[in-house]
Amino acid sequence: MALSQSDLMRLLESLRAADGVESIRVLCERILQELIEAEATEAIGAAPREHTSERTTWRNGHRDRLLTSQAGDLDLKIPKVRTGSFFPSLLERRRRIDRALFAVVMEAYVHGVSTRSVDDLVKALGADSGISKSEVSRICGELDDELVAFRERPLDHTVFPYVFLDATYCKARVNHRIV
Fold first, then answer.
1. pTM of the full predicted structure?
2. Which position among 2, 28, 30, 40 has the lowest Cβ density within 10 Å, counted as fewest Cβ atoms?
C-alpha cells in the first residue's frame, strides 16, 4: 500500500518530533549504500568475493562520499574498481547535496538571503557539515541558465488579454557613479 505525499510528510514530522531523525538518517544511509552496492555488483558482474565468468573487473576498496540530505549528512562508500570506473547512477557527480536541499538553497538565494546565512539555514535543516559560500554561488549560478531560458521563451502560443508589469529599482554603481 503506497502512502500519499501528505501521509509521508505527517509520518516524517512525527518521527522528527519523537527524535527519530537519527534513525531516519541511518535508514536512508543504509538504503542508499545497499543500492550502490547492488549497482556495483551488476556493473562488475559479481558480488564481493564471488567468482563468476561474467566478471569484468575487481573491487578495489571504497572511497568516502558525504551526501547532505534533509535527513542529515549521509556517509556513503563508493566502490572503487581496478580497471575502468564506477559511479552510482542514483548520485550526481560533483554534487554534494541532494535535490531537495539544492532547491532550498536556490529559494533562499532568490529571496535575498546572504550566502553566510544560507550556510546557517542548511545547518539548521540538519546538515552538520553546512555549505560553503563558493558552493552556494555555484548552485545559484545554475539559476542564470534557467532565467535566460524563461526570459527568452516564445509567447506567441496564446493570446494575452492583459499584461501586468511590476518593477524593482535597485541602485547600482556603474563607472564610479550610482545609477
1. 0.49
2. 2
Res. 148: pLDDT tops 80: yes
- Amino acid identity of 15? L
**Which residues lie below 8 Å from residue 28, measured CB to CB, with a gap of 6+?**
69, 71, 74
Domain positions in the chain = 7-96, 97-154
Q: Which alpha helices (H) appear in the chain, and where do they start and end?
A: 5-17, 21-44, 99-110, 115-124, 133-151
Give dist(CA 33, CA 3) in Å, integer.
Answer: 24
- Residue 81 and residue 56: Cα distance in Å, rounded? 10
Q: How far apart are the first and last CA of the chain?
A: 60
Q: What is the pLDDT of residue 1?
A: 45
Element (H or E) spanning 93, and its range?
none
Cell of 154: 516564445
Radius of gyration of the chain (CA): 23
Answer whether 81's CB lies under 8 Å from 48's CB: no
pLDDT in tens, 164-175: 888 887 877 788
Q: Are residues 108 and 143 in contact, defined by beta-carbon separation less than 8 angstroms?
A: no
The answer to whether the beta carbons of residues 79 and 37 sit under 8 Å apart is yes
What is d(CA 4, CA 9) in angstroms, rounded to the nearest whole number? 9
How far is the C-alpha of 40 from the C-alpha of 36, rounded, in Å? 6
